Protein backbone atom coordinates (compact mmCIF):
# COMPACT_ATOMS: atom_id res chain seq x y z
CA UNK A 1 0.00 0.00 0.00
CA UNK A 2 1.30 3.42 -0.92
CA UNK A 3 0.99 6.10 1.77
CA UNK A 4 -0.22 9.33 0.15
CA UNK A 5 0.71 12.26 2.41
CA UNK A 6 -2.22 14.62 2.94
CA UNK A 7 -0.51 18.02 2.89
CA UNK A 8 -3.76 19.88 3.53
CA UNK A 9 -4.50 17.93 6.73
CA UNK A 10 -0.94 18.30 8.00
CA UNK A 11 -0.96 22.03 7.19
CA UNK A 12 -4.24 22.38 9.12
CA UNK A 13 -2.51 20.95 12.20
CA UNK A 14 0.20 23.62 11.89
CA UNK A 15 -2.43 26.35 11.32
CA UNK A 16 -4.22 25.22 14.52
CA UNK A 17 -0.91 25.53 16.39
CA UNK A 18 -0.44 29.01 14.91
CA UNK A 19 -3.92 30.03 16.17
CA UNK A 20 -3.01 28.81 19.66
CA UNK A 21 0.25 30.77 19.55
CA UNK A 22 -1.65 33.87 18.41
CA UNK A 23 -3.89 33.53 21.51
CA UNK A 24 -0.78 33.41 23.68
CA UNK A 25 0.55 36.59 22.05
CA UNK A 26 -2.84 38.33 22.33
CA UNK A 27 -2.81 37.63 26.08
CA UNK A 28 0.38 39.73 26.18
CA UNK A 29 -1.13 42.49 24.01
CA UNK A 30 0.69 41.47 20.81
CA UNK A 31 -0.85 40.55 17.43
CA UNK A 32 1.61 38.77 15.10
CA UNK A 33 1.70 40.51 11.71
CA UNK A 34 2.78 39.28 8.28
CA UNK A 35 3.21 41.54 5.25
CA UNK A 36 2.93 40.03 1.78
CA UNK A 37 4.30 42.10 -1.07
CA UNK A 38 3.53 41.37 -4.69
CA UNK A 39 4.87 43.25 -7.69
CA UNK A 40 3.16 42.77 -11.04
CA UNK A 41 0.30 40.60 -12.22
CA UNK A 42 1.65 37.06 -12.41
CA UNK A 43 -1.57 35.01 -11.99
CA UNK A 44 0.02 32.12 -10.05
CA UNK A 45 1.72 34.57 -7.66
CA UNK A 46 -1.60 36.39 -7.16
CA UNK A 47 -3.21 33.06 -6.21
CA UNK A 48 -0.47 32.17 -3.72
CA UNK A 49 -0.47 35.59 -2.07
CA UNK A 50 -4.26 35.56 -1.75
CA UNK A 51 -4.04 32.12 -0.14
CA UNK A 52 -1.39 33.39 2.28
CA UNK A 53 -3.60 36.33 3.26
CA UNK A 54 -6.55 33.97 3.81
CA UNK A 55 -4.33 31.78 6.01
CA UNK A 56 -3.46 34.86 8.09
CA UNK A 57 -7.12 35.74 8.52
CA UNK A 58 -8.02 32.19 9.58
CA UNK A 59 -5.20 31.96 12.11
CA UNK A 60 -5.73 35.45 13.57
CA UNK A 61 -2.47 36.84 12.18
CA UNK A 62 -2.60 40.50 11.09
CA UNK A 63 -2.16 40.23 7.30
CA UNK A 64 -0.85 43.37 5.61
CA UNK A 65 -1.00 43.16 1.85
CA UNK A 66 0.93 45.51 -0.43
CA UNK A 67 0.64 45.54 -4.24
CA UNK A 68 3.36 47.28 -6.21
CA UNK A 69 2.71 48.11 -9.85
CA UNK A 70 4.61 45.86 -12.25
CA UNK A 71 5.98 48.95 -14.03
CA UNK A 72 7.22 50.61 -10.84
CA UNK A 73 10.95 50.92 -10.29
CA UNK A 74 13.13 48.71 -8.13
CA UNK A 75 13.59 51.71 -5.81
CA UNK A 76 9.81 51.89 -5.32
CA UNK A 77 9.82 48.26 -4.22
CA UNK A 78 12.82 48.85 -1.95
CA UNK A 79 10.99 51.83 -0.38
CA UNK A 80 7.99 49.55 0.31
CA UNK A 81 10.26 47.03 2.02
CA UNK A 82 11.94 49.79 4.06
CA UNK A 83 8.53 51.03 5.27
CA UNK A 84 7.55 47.51 6.35
CA UNK A 85 10.89 47.03 8.12
CA UNK A 86 10.01 50.10 10.22
CA UNK A 87 6.48 49.04 11.18
CA UNK A 88 6.00 47.63 14.69
CA UNK A 89 2.79 45.81 13.71
CA UNK A 90 4.64 43.81 11.00
CA UNK A 91 6.82 40.98 12.35
CA UNK A 92 7.26 39.00 9.13
CA UNK A 93 7.76 40.19 5.55
CA UNK A 94 7.75 38.24 2.32
CA UNK A 95 8.17 39.47 -1.22
CA UNK A 96 6.50 37.05 -3.60
CA UNK A 97 8.73 35.71 -6.38
CA UNK A 98 9.25 35.74 -9.30
CA UNK A 99 9.73 39.50 -9.59
CA UNK A 100 9.57 41.41 -12.90
CA UNK A 101 12.72 41.15 -15.04
CA UNK A 102 13.88 44.73 -14.35
CA UNK A 103 14.11 44.04 -10.61
CA UNK A 104 17.15 42.40 -9.02
CA UNK A 105 15.63 39.77 -6.73
CA UNK A 106 18.78 39.44 -4.64
CA UNK A 107 18.86 43.19 -3.84
CA UNK A 108 15.25 43.04 -2.72
CA UNK A 109 15.82 40.02 -0.43
CA UNK A 110 18.91 41.75 1.00
CA UNK A 111 16.76 44.77 1.90
CA UNK A 112 14.41 42.82 4.19
CA UNK A 113 15.30 43.16 7.87
CA UNK A 114 16.78 39.69 8.62
CA UNK A 115 14.74 39.43 11.85
CA UNK A 116 11.53 39.88 9.79
CA UNK A 117 12.62 37.58 6.94
CA UNK A 118 9.66 35.15 6.94
CA UNK A 119 10.96 33.36 3.82
CA UNK A 120 14.47 32.88 5.20
CA UNK A 121 16.02 34.18 1.96
CA UNK A 122 18.20 36.99 3.41
CA UNK A 123 21.93 36.08 3.19
CA UNK A 124 22.27 36.34 6.97
CA UNK A 125 19.59 33.68 7.39
CA UNK A 126 20.99 31.56 4.55
CA UNK A 127 24.38 31.67 6.29
CA UNK A 128 22.88 30.67 9.62
CA UNK A 129 21.11 27.74 8.01
CA UNK A 130 24.29 26.50 6.28
CA UNK A 131 26.15 26.81 9.60
CA UNK A 132 23.55 24.58 11.24
CA UNK A 133 22.06 27.46 13.25
CA UNK A 134 18.90 28.10 11.25
CA UNK A 135 16.75 31.02 12.42
CA UNK A 136 14.11 30.93 9.68
CA UNK A 137 14.12 27.74 7.60
CA UNK A 138 12.79 28.48 4.07
CA UNK A 139 9.16 27.41 4.00
CA UNK A 140 9.16 24.69 1.35
CA UNK A 141 12.20 22.77 2.67
CA UNK A 142 10.85 23.03 6.22
CA UNK A 143 7.47 21.77 4.99
CA UNK A 144 9.16 18.81 3.30
CA UNK A 145 10.97 17.93 6.54
CA UNK A 146 7.66 18.02 8.41
CA UNK A 147 6.03 15.79 5.79
CA UNK A 148 8.83 13.22 6.02
CA UNK A 149 8.57 13.16 9.83
CA UNK A 150 4.78 12.85 9.63
CA UNK A 151 5.14 9.85 7.30
CA UNK A 152 7.64 8.29 9.76
CA UNK A 153 10.46 8.52 7.24
CA UNK A 154 13.70 8.56 9.21
CA UNK A 155 16.30 10.20 6.95
CA UNK A 156 19.31 9.04 9.01
CA UNK A 157 21.74 7.18 6.77
CA UNK A 158 19.35 7.36 3.81
CA UNK A 159 20.33 8.28 0.26
CA UNK A 160 18.31 11.32 -0.76
CA UNK A 161 18.30 12.64 -4.31
CA UNK A 162 16.99 16.16 -4.86
CA UNK A 163 16.22 16.99 -8.48
CA UNK A 164 16.63 20.77 -8.69
CA UNK A 165 19.21 23.21 -7.30
CA UNK A 166 17.18 26.37 -6.68
CA UNK A 167 17.95 28.78 -3.86
CA UNK A 168 14.36 28.41 -2.60
CA UNK A 169 14.17 24.59 -2.44
CA UNK A 170 17.07 22.43 -3.66
CA UNK A 171 20.01 24.10 -1.94
CA UNK A 172 18.43 24.76 1.48
CA UNK A 173 16.74 21.34 1.58
CA UNK A 174 20.05 19.62 0.80
CA UNK A 175 21.66 21.54 3.65
CA UNK A 176 18.92 20.70 6.11
CA UNK A 177 18.78 17.00 5.26
CA UNK A 178 22.55 16.53 5.52
CA UNK A 179 22.80 18.29 8.90
CA UNK A 180 23.55 16.43 12.11
CA UNK A 181 19.98 16.52 13.41
CA UNK A 182 17.07 14.17 14.08
CA UNK A 183 15.43 15.32 10.84
CA UNK A 184 18.73 15.21 8.91
CA UNK A 185 21.73 12.84 8.84
CA UNK A 186 21.04 11.86 5.21
CA UNK A 187 23.49 11.49 2.35
CA UNK A 188 22.25 14.02 -0.17
CA UNK A 189 22.84 14.27 -3.91
CA UNK A 190 21.61 17.40 -5.70
CA UNK A 191 20.90 16.82 -9.39
CA UNK A 192 20.23 19.43 -12.08
CA UNK A 193 20.06 20.00 -15.82
CA UNK A 194 23.74 19.09 -16.33
CA UNK A 195 23.64 15.92 -14.24
CA UNK A 196 24.69 12.83 -16.15
CA UNK A 197 22.68 9.62 -15.87
CA UNK A 198 20.00 11.08 -13.64
CA UNK A 199 18.00 7.86 -13.76
CA UNK A 200 20.83 5.83 -12.21
CA UNK A 201 20.94 8.32 -9.35
CA UNK A 202 17.19 8.46 -8.68
CA UNK A 203 16.98 4.65 -8.95
CA UNK A 204 19.62 4.27 -6.24
CA UNK A 205 17.85 6.70 -3.89
CA UNK A 206 15.75 5.89 -0.81
CA UNK A 207 14.11 9.32 -1.03
CA UNK A 208 13.56 11.36 -4.21
CA UNK A 209 12.53 15.02 -3.99
CA UNK A 210 11.40 16.43 -7.34
CA UNK A 211 11.91 20.20 -7.52
CA UNK A 212 12.92 20.82 -11.12
CA UNK A 213 9.90 22.81 -12.33
CA UNK A 214 9.28 20.30 -15.11
CA UNK A 215 5.78 18.78 -15.36
CA UNK A 216 5.68 15.02 -14.64
CA UNK A 217 9.44 14.75 -15.14
CA UNK A 218 10.07 11.97 -12.60
CA UNK A 219 8.39 8.75 -13.69
CA UNK A 220 7.95 5.38 -12.03
CA UNK A 221 10.71 3.76 -14.05
CA UNK A 222 13.20 6.21 -12.50
CA UNK A 223 12.44 4.93 -8.99
CA UNK A 224 13.36 1.92 -6.91
CA UNK A 225 10.64 -0.23 -5.38
CA UNK A 226 9.54 1.31 -2.06
CA UNK A 227 11.10 4.74 -2.62
CA UNK A 228 9.78 7.79 -0.79
CA UNK A 229 8.77 10.47 -3.30
CA UNK A 230 8.16 14.13 -2.44
CA UNK A 231 6.81 16.30 -5.25
CA UNK A 232 7.65 19.99 -4.88
CA UNK A 233 6.62 21.00 -8.41
CA UNK A 234 3.44 22.98 -9.00
CA UNK A 235 2.99 23.43 -12.75
CA UNK A 236 0.00 24.90 -14.57
CA UNK A 237 -0.51 22.97 -17.80
CA UNK A 238 -3.13 23.86 -20.41
CA UNK A 239 -6.27 21.79 -20.01
CA UNK A 240 -9.92 21.89 -20.95
CA UNK A 241 -11.05 22.94 -17.45
CA UNK A 242 -12.96 25.95 -16.12
CA UNK A 243 -9.67 27.70 -15.33
CA UNK A 244 -8.05 26.66 -18.62
CA UNK A 245 -5.30 24.72 -16.87
CA UNK A 246 -4.69 21.90 -14.45
CA UNK A 247 -2.07 21.60 -11.75
CA UNK A 248 0.51 18.86 -12.07
CA UNK A 249 3.64 18.16 -10.11
CA UNK A 250 7.16 17.31 -11.22
CA UNK A 251 6.27 13.64 -10.63
CA UNK A 252 4.11 11.46 -12.83
CA UNK A 253 1.86 10.46 -9.93
CA UNK A 254 0.28 7.44 -11.59
CA UNK A 255 3.45 5.56 -12.51
CA UNK A 256 5.40 6.77 -9.45
CA UNK A 257 2.76 5.64 -6.97
CA UNK A 258 3.03 2.09 -8.33
CA UNK A 259 6.62 2.03 -7.03
CA UNK A 260 6.58 4.40 -4.05
CA UNK A 261 5.96 3.43 -0.43
CA UNK A 262 5.22 7.08 0.40
CA UNK A 263 4.33 9.86 -2.04
CA UNK A 264 3.04 13.44 -1.88
CA UNK A 265 0.38 14.57 -4.34
CA UNK A 266 -0.07 17.81 -6.29
CA UNK A 267 -2.20 19.69 -5.46
CA UNK A 268 -2.64 19.05 -1.74
CA UNK A 269 0.94 18.12 -0.87
CA UNK A 270 3.92 20.44 -0.43
CA UNK A 271 2.00 23.63 -1.43
CA UNK A 272 -0.17 23.89 1.70
CA UNK A 273 2.81 22.98 3.88
CA UNK A 274 4.81 25.84 2.32
CA UNK A 275 2.06 28.23 3.44
CA UNK A 276 1.83 26.66 6.90
CA UNK A 277 5.56 27.02 7.53
CA UNK A 278 5.34 30.67 6.49
CA UNK A 279 3.02 31.28 9.43
CA UNK A 280 5.35 29.20 11.61
CA UNK A 281 8.16 31.62 10.68
CA UNK A 282 5.88 34.57 11.40
CA UNK A 283 5.28 33.22 14.90
CA UNK A 284 9.00 32.68 15.35
CA UNK A 285 9.75 36.21 14.13
CA UNK A 286 7.16 37.65 16.54
CA UNK A 287 8.73 35.76 19.44
CA UNK A 288 12.18 37.10 18.55
CA UNK A 289 10.96 40.69 18.23
CA UNK A 290 8.69 40.84 21.29
CA UNK A 291 10.30 38.41 23.73
CA UNK A 292 6.89 36.75 24.25
CA UNK A 293 7.56 33.03 24.68
CA UNK A 294 4.55 31.69 22.72
CA UNK A 295 4.55 27.97 21.83
CA UNK A 296 5.95 27.26 18.37
CA UNK A 297 3.49 25.25 16.22
N1 LIG B 1 8.61 34.66 -1.66
C1 LIG B 1 8.34 33.40 -2.08
N2 LIG B 1 8.03 33.18 -3.37
C2 LIG B 1 7.77 31.90 -3.78
C3 LIG B 1 7.80 30.83 -2.87
C4 LIG B 1 8.13 31.09 -1.52
O1 LIG B 1 8.21 30.18 -0.65
N3 LIG B 1 8.39 32.39 -1.17
N4 LIG B 1 7.43 29.55 -3.28
C5 LIG B 1 6.77 29.37 -4.56
C6 LIG B 1 5.28 29.48 -4.56
N5 LIG B 1 4.55 29.32 -3.30
C7 LIG B 1 4.78 30.21 -2.31
O2 LIG B 1 4.81 31.38 -2.49
C8 LIG B 1 3.41 28.46 -3.18
C9 LIG B 1 2.98 27.68 -4.20
C10 LIG B 1 1.82 26.88 -4.08
C11 LIG B 1 1.13 26.87 -2.91
C12 LIG B 1 -0.14 26.07 -2.74
O3 LIG B 1 -0.76 26.13 -1.71
N6 LIG B 1 -0.55 25.30 -3.77
C13 LIG B 1 -1.78 24.55 -3.76
C14 LIG B 1 -2.54 24.77 -5.04
C15 LIG B 1 -2.82 26.22 -5.29
C16 LIG B 1 -3.52 26.50 -6.60
O4 LIG B 1 -4.72 26.21 -6.68
O5 LIG B 1 -2.88 27.01 -7.52
C17 LIG B 1 -1.45 23.06 -3.65
O6 LIG B 1 -0.35 22.66 -4.07
O7 LIG B 1 -2.31 22.32 -3.17
C18 LIG B 1 1.56 27.64 -1.86
C19 LIG B 1 2.70 28.42 -1.99
C20 LIG B 1 7.29 30.36 -5.58
N7 LIG B 1 7.44 31.66 -5.07
Secondary structure layout:
Blueprint: E1 3-4, H1 7-27, E2 33-39, H2 43-59, E3 62-68, H3 74-86, E4 92-95, H4 105-111, H5 123-130, H6 139-150, E5 159-163, H7 170-178, E6 187-191, H8 198-203, E7 207-210, E8 228-231, E9 235-238, E10 245-248, H9 253-259, E11 262-263, H10 270-290
Parallel strand pairs: 1-11, 2-3, 2-4, 5-6, 5-7, 7-8, 8-11
Antiparallel strand pairs: 9-10
The ligand Nc1nc2c(c(=O)[nH]1)N[C@@H](CN(C=O)c1ccc(C(=O)N[C@@H](CCC(=O)O)C(=O)O)cc1)CN2 binds next to helix 2, strand 4, helix 6 and helix 10.
Write structural notes for this entry:
Catalyzes the oxidation of 5,10-methylenetetrahydrofolate to 5,10-methenyltetrahydrofolate and then the hydrolysis of 5,10-methenyltetrahydrofolate to 10-formyltetrahydrofolate. It comes from Halorubellus litoreus. It catalyses: (6R)-5,10-methylene-5,6,7,8-tetrahydrofolate + NADP(+) = (6R)-5,10-methenyltetrahydrofolate + NADPH; (6R)-5,10-methenyltetrahydrofolate + H2O = (6R)-10-formyltetrahydrofolate + H(+). This is Bifunctional protein FolD. Its EC number is 1.5.1.5, 3.5.4.9. The chain is α/β, with parallel strands linked by helices and 297 residues long. It folds into two domains: 28-114, Leucine Dehydrogenase, chain A, domain 1 (Rossmann fold, 3-Layer(aba) Sandwich); 139-272, 3-Layer(aba) Sandwich (Rossmann fold), CATH 3.40.50. The protein has helices at residues 7-27, 43-59, 74-86, 105-111, 123-130, 139-150, 170-178, 198-203, 253-259, 270-290, and strands at residues 3-4, 33-39, 62-68, 92-95, 159-163, 187-191, 207-210, 228-231, 235-238, 245-248, 262-263. The strands form three sheets. It has a six-stranded parallel beta sheet, with helices on both faces. A three-stranded parallel beta sheet has the order 3-2-4, sandwiched between helices. Strands 9-10 form a two-stranded antiparallel ribbon. Helix 1 (7-27) packs parallel to helix 10 and helix 6 crosses helix 10 (270-290). The longest helix has 21 residues, at 7-27. The two termini are 30 Å apart. The model has no long low-confidence stretch (mean pLDDT 98). Bound molecules: the ligand Nc1nc2c(c(=O)[nH]1)N[C@@H](CN(C=O)c1ccc(C(=O)N[C@@H](CCC(=O)O)C(=O)O)cc1)CN2.
Amino acid sequence: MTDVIDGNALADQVFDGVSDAVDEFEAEGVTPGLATVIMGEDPASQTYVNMKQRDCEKAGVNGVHVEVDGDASQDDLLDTVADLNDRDDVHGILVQTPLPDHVDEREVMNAIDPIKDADGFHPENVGRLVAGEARFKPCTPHGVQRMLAHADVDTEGKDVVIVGRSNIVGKPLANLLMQKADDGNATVTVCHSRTTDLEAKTKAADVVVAAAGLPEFVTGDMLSEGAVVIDVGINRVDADTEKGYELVGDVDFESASEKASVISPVPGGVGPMTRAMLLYNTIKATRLQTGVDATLP
